[in-house]
Amino acid sequence: MIRIKDIAEKAGVSPTTVSNVIHGNRKKVSKETVEKIEKLLKDMDYIPSMGARMLAGGGTRVIGVLVAEPDGEKHHAEGHSFANILIRSLELEIYRRNYYMLLHFTATPEEGIQFAATWNVEGLIILGFGTADSIRLQSSSHVPIVSIDVYYDDERMANVGLDDRNGGRIMTEYLLETGHRRIAFVSDNDIGVDHERWRGVCEACEAYSDKKVHIRHIIIPEERRSRTEYYEKYLEGVSGEYDALFFASDYYAVEALALLADIGVRVPEDLSVAGFDDTESARICRPTLTTVHQDVEEKAEHAVKKLFEFIEGERKVSMTDRLPVTLVLRGSVKNR
Amino acid sequence: MIRIKDIAEKAGVSPTTVSNVIHGNRKKVSKETVEKIEKLLKDMDYIPSMGARMLAGGGTRVIGVLVAEPDGEKHHAEGHSFANILIRSLELEIYRRNYYMLLHFTATPEEGIQFAATWNVEGLIILGFGTADSIRLQSSSHVPIVSIDVYYDDERMANVGLDDRNGGRIMTEYLLETGHRRIAFVSDNDIGVDHERWRGVCEACEAYSDKKVHIRHIIIPEERRSRTEYYEKYLEGVSGEYDALFFASDYYAVEALALLADIGVRVPEDLSVAGFDDTESARICRPTLTTVHQDVEEKAEHAVKKLFEFIEGERKVSMTDRLPVTLVLRGSVKNR
DNA sequence: ATGAAAGCGCTAACAA
DNA sequence: TTGTTAGCGCTTTCAT
């Protein structure tokens, strides 16, 4: 292992000078020295020791990414297929800035805090946590934190999410315009993101001229088994009761598409179906899924950008950013 | 921040003793002292400094996970939906052993090596790399490395993968038994994993009594656009030419299912379709997909277990492990 | 423009 | 069973 000291000796200068060159403090070093050292650094294949760096207090260059681990269940990991892309994009963005990503799946915020403290991370990106847990994390840690997809009562927390309400609204407007009057919004909860999407649904209906609109929010079980049981009971009658089913995620929508096909309900002829997210599956299923598009990579980029604004001491970092969503029209919705 | 020194002072002992308690060297410390220190550690909320630990040479407790970044393309990330679960399972296993996972998506092996050296990782798990890159990584780094899903010419590298050949074989045997005689194996390459699966296909056919069997290996473009174009040209005639299409991944199989539906080819009536992996999508598509099941979590567990056998100096670590696969019969294949 | 020196928190070899 | 001590490689302050 080549140390700064080794380079210094070879160059006939002091370790301080080498350190200065490494950190680009070029005002303190003569041009010739800089060049000489830089060549040596390369030739001798110098690789910094993160341990020493961390200890010496130069910053750890570690960003922690905390992913909420839904208590021992794995179905979630499968459902949220974009967590994959998100994590990848986060790492790309973090590494681009010469930082490193320490990824941890944590069941409790407390453990997450300990994790962050142990590594003395310079910043934290958290995802999948509820409001309460996110606040707990924010308040018990003093490093910059950016959360993804959380809704706070006040707007003092740094967060990047989607314009979920608008997503709910534009899809519902579209459904209304295409003649749907009995619309069910289907999600597995009524908090955070899904609550906002549902509010968007409501707003669109309230603003609509034709008041003979029926909407309902159906909450389905999150756990797959229970959900299947639920569908076995209620899916049969659904096409008589509703014109359109608007699911809070493509995952649920695609699943429903299959189950509807099983019981002979034709989509979109008998019933329209819409999703949210625009994942790969929305393009691959049949009929193709009309859905609300979100740009996951943009989300990651934005979150990292924001985190670094914090880290670099930017004063006026916006708190909650809601990235835009767009409508993607495909085959699962038809004019009535 | 609470240091070992602080705890030591409070307890009236030396830092060494505290360190010993922390590391469970209980033979060197009296029982009362252990208890006293442990209480203090908890009460004062001691959190170790990884930087200091790394520097002092007690091991970094960092495992690097290197994921090959297919040159700038993102379709891959979407396709391999199990990378998600794999990474999560890896972290869980690593953390269970009180280690930390540093995740990095790298375009070149060289960068990966630098990454590993910078952090002085105690071990490396690599995935998505080809044979050549994997060997390059193995030979230029002196930490234990376990690769996932790589095929080496010799068996000197530590690797965990699937019994891919058997997977290809059992599916093909099943197809033959159910009366299929013209079978195409479809993948986007003919190396590594896919090559093995294809060999399995061949072996099954060679061993089959009825020799009037036609098999072919079709290579489709990896890039989605080109693949779509390819399908537009050739998919039309496929049901006349083959009885069954056996795809090297569920992802491709499900995609084909949709495209076949588009052009009016009925699966399984006109043509049987099979996949490999048994991902979530195989259950959700219609018809449901007959496929070869692999256990991704087991793969992760196994890889980490193996890596730690190396780290702990185990001499007789097996080199290549091939985890079992099983047949999953669903609706996309029918008796002919 | 360059260097000397202190110290970050911890571990481990050695002493007591 | 417990303590003393010497670094690990780097950054940073203060001299020069």
Structure description:
Two copies of one chain form a homodimer. In chain A, helix 1 crosses helix 3 and helix 6 packs parallel to helix 15. Chain A has three domains: 54 residues, Orthogonal Bundle (434 Repressor (Amino-terminal Domain)), CATH 1.10.260.40; 128 residues, Response regulator (Rossmann fold); 131 residues, Response regulator (Rossmann fold). Chain A has 336 residues and is an alpha/beta fold. The longest helix of chain A has 16 residues. In chain A, strand 6, helix 10 and strand 7 form a beta-alpha-beta unit. Chain A has 15 helices and twelve strands. Chain A is elongated, with a radius of gyration of 26 Å. Chain A has a six-stranded parallel β-sheet with strand order 2-1-3-4-5-11, sandwiched between helices. A four-stranded parallel β-sheet of chain A has the order 7-6-8-9. Chain A starts with a helix and ends in an 8-residue tail after the last strand. Chains A and B meet through helix 4, helix 5, helix 6, strand 2 and helix 7 of A and helix 4, helix 5, helix 6, strand 2 and helix 7 of B. Chain A binds a DNA duplex (16 and 16 nucleotides) through helix 2 and helix 4.
Task: Give a quick set of tags describing it.
homodimer, 336 residues, alpha/beta, 434 Repressor (Amino-terminal Domain), Rossmann fold, 3 domains, six-stranded parallel sheet, four-stranded parallel sheet, 46% helix, elongated, DNA-binding
Short description:
The structure is a homodimer of 336-residue chains. Chain A is built from 15 helices and 12 strands. With 336 residues, chain A is of the alpha/beta class.
